[in-house]
Amino acid sequence: EDGRRGFRQYGYDGRDFLAFDKETLTWTAADGPAQITKRKWEVETVVQRLKFYLEKECVDELRKHLRYGRESLQRKAPPEVKVTRKDSQEGLETLLCQVHGFYPKEIDVTWRKDGEVRQEDTFRGVVCPNPDGTYYTWLSIEIDPKDRSRYLCHVEHDGVPDPLDVAVEDSASMPVWFIAVGVVPVLAVAGVMFYVKKRPEKAAYRAASMSDQGSDSSAKA
Fold first, then answer.
1. How far apart are CA 166 and CA 82, in angstroms?
2. Which helix (H) or strand (E) holds 85?
3. How far is the C-alpha of 92 from the C-alpha of 142, rounded, in Å?
4. What secondary structure letter does DSSP report for 149?
5. Strand pairing of 151-156 and 122-124?
6. Whole-number Å distance between alpha carbons of 116 and 122
7. CB-hemisphere CA count at 13 Å for 153?
8. CA neighbours closer than 13 Å in the CB half-sphere of residue 221
9. What's the Cα-to-Cα distance from 202 to each of 35, 87, 191, rounded to whole Å?
10. CA 101, CA 112: separation in Å to the nearest integer?
11. Residue 76: CB partners within 8 Å, gap ≥ 6?
12. CA–CA gap between residue 15 and residue 19 (Å, rounded)
């Protein structure tokens, strides 16, 4: 804070070269070639200037930049959490927890059933940036609809004094983008099955056509 811990060190070719001790105003050379530079730099005007820089100018510059960036570096934006649901296959249901608008990036989001963390059947999205500098992420889990009220999306973040536990909204349905992620692969599989099913019919048609052409040729002969 007061500049007493300021230091300057140099390296060369991946190894230590010179280190400056501002208390003794001397350089420590790591090897023979560094001794030449050490003698040149241990001129009184040079070391006094470097001592002043480490104790005054360097500290002042650092404080100035910290002051300029304090609003951004120390700001905290609380997360907004929303839990939606969608019918899944085999009578199950998918819950989706969307967390957005938070800063800083570090966040802990988990599903909890009756207060216990549930990792199995959980799909987790990556934490991504928003255009305004905040972040968003998501978490989903497949459950038995009868247990819906027992599940909460648990969020811990520096932007809120206490953890958030959010239940599913009764009238909330799954967003279109999340449904599309599951629908596109299904459509692709359906298209492949349709193609495979139709292909034998086309082959049979070609075989029948060739047979008819052969019959016509025989008749003409």
1. 7
2. strand 80-87
3. 7
4. G
5. unpaired
6. 14
7. 27
8. 6
9. 86, 38, 16
10. 22
11. 103, 104, 158, 159
12. 12
Q: Which residue has the higher pLDDT, 69 or 87?
A: 87
The number of CA neighbours under 13 Å toward the Cβ of 26 is 4
Q: How far apart are CA 36 and CA 17, in angstroms?
A: 11
Q: In this predicted structure, what is the pLDDT of residue 184?
A: 47
Amino acid (1-letter code) at residue 75: R
**Other beta carbons less than 10 A from residue 98's beta carbon:** 21
Q: What are phi and psi of 74, to 5 degrees?
A: -105, 0
pLDDT, tens only, 98-155:
999 999 999 999 999 999 999 888 999 999 999 999 999 999 999 999 999 999 999 9
Question: What is the average per-residue pLDDT within 55-83?
Answer: 84
Domains, the chain: 8-73 (3.30.500.10), 80-178 (2.60.40.10)
Strand pairing class (26-29; 15-21): antiparallel
Side-chain-facing half-sphere of 162: CA atoms under 13 Å = 2
Q: Which two tokens stand for residue 185?
A: 């692969």
